[in-house]
Hints:
With 460 residues, the protein is mainly α.
Amino acid sequence: MSSSTQERSSWSGKWAFILAGAASAVGLGNMWRFPYLAAKYGGGTFILTYLILVFTFGVTLLLLECALGRRTGLSAIGAFRHFGKKFAFIGVLASAVPFIIAPYYSIIGGWVTKYTFAYITNGPAALADKGKFFTSFISSPVESFVWMAVFMIVVFIIVGLGVGGGIERANLVMMPALIVMAVALVVYIVSMPGAMSGVAYYLIPDMAKFSPELFVSALGQMFYSLSLAMGIMITYGSYLDKKSSLPHSVANIGMFDLGVSILAGLMIVPAAFVAMGSGEAVAAKSGPSLMFVTLPEVFQSMGPQVATVIGFLFFLLVAFAAITSAMSLIETMTSIIMDGKGYSRKKAFTITCIFTFVMGIFINLGFNGLSFFQPLGKGSTILDLFDFVSNSVLMPIVAVLTLVFVGWIVKPKTLIDEIEVSAPFKLQAAWSVMVKYIAPVLVIVIMVAYVGAQFGVFKF
Length: 460
């Protein structure tokens, strides 16, 4: 028996698994991408579409990956190899995703951490300067690397304490704290004069804005937000005991993801209405510019004292979301190395930390020392390249291969038997149809749309 098997971790119970899955799903995409998309695509119309997709397509893939992990008791490579060595390549592709994402995700986590402290040390006015503060920071040959390292160290310490002593305990603190902070910020923001107009803009469906573009955007957001096709949920499922209900667990993970996304929109869209008089301000911005340029200006418009408190709490909330997601990436990488090489957890974890740190330095150079290298066209960075390869290429490919593998090779019945170990699975027929026919088509739509958008064929 390998040392990796001897030292394999496990969750203390179903709710520890649910919190961990939710913590992985709730990340930066919920905070800066969901509000922008909802504002752009008709508010409630986008939210309704997203909700339907989460509890059909999203939960289908979550259930599949968790069941595959629990059935085999292994991370991605081992889980697929369990059914034959010739299928291990699917696990290899899935395993490559967290190794690509973790370094650049930690860089962005460092940005968030910097802004959290900057609201106290620099003050809100310094951050609300139309992007000069942000540009100066990320292009710094020293400061941006220091904050990346700070973020990584926090994540490494938590994961280094183990699944039970580190990840579970951290999630038990940070996830409730995240929800409490989000609710508190929402209550304050929606109580401001003029904010209810933003709430109405955000929540009331405008069905005239429903379009294929909206559907594909909601589909893509859901796919990336739920930590699908990157080996995480296979790994987390492998730590779950046989008594816990998988359908109930993954439904709760989907609810957490949806709930935090909606709360993020209720913070950002009404605040933009108060400051700028229109939700179009959110719709016009996405990604880092919304988080690090637009929102500091929105907060500053609330007055210096309020801006300090609101800005600090908001970025602390986002930092918690980033940390919990990064934890799942680092844990998955560690588990993959343990299962693949038979190393002890300590050795696999050390390799993971060194790799993530070194690659983080390389990717971060794309904003300063290697800024001349623009791999995806003018203005792009090394981070953009890694993000494109992982999110728009590898993840959809892994998802399609996984669905074909389960739907047509080992057959859905193999995982249905695993799901029913803990409880009857009443939706098995619908789930099988989704796995075999509908989900593969939807994933291909995501890949074609986003790869096409990168090269100017489509516009999103």
